[in-house]
Amino acid sequence: MPGLASDEQIRLLQSRYDLTLPNDFRTYLQTVCPATDLWDVEDGNWWSFDRIKNIPDEYRYEISEPTVAAHASRYLFFMDYLIWSHAWAISCTDDENRGRVVFIGGMPDCFVADSFTDFVERYVKDWMSVWPARS
Length: 135
What we know:
Blueprint: H1 7-17, H2 23-31, E1 38-39, E2 44-46, E3 53-54, H3 55-58, H4 66-70, E4 75-81, E5 86-91, E6 101-104, E7 110-113, H5 116-125
Antiparallel strand pairs: 1-2, 2-4, 3-4, 4-5, 5-6, 6-7
C-alpha cells in the first residue's frame, strides 16, 4: 500500500526545508509514494516519504553541479541506485531549475530530466535514459 503523504506531512516537509514542492512531485507523494523503501527490478530504490531529505541532510560530499550546489538545501532526494551508489533529487527552487531532476554521485552531477513526470516516464520506458550521458 502506498505511503500516502497527508497535507499536514507535506506542509511539515515544506516548512522543514523552507520550500514548496513542484506539483507533480506533491501528487506523487500523496498518491503513490511507497510506505517503505521500494526496490525495483533495475536496482532503483524509491524512498518512502519518511526518508525524503534534502541534499545537506543526506549527502556529505561536494556537489559538482554549481547551480545545484548553490541551492542544495532546496533539492530533495527521492530515489537511489544500488544502496546509494548514486541518487536522484528534485529541485524545489524558485528559479529556472524548479522541478528538474538531478543525478547525484555521478561525477559530474548533472540534470537528467526536466520534471518529475518526465523522469518517471523516461525511467519506466528506459531506466538508463535518466543517467548522465556516457561518451
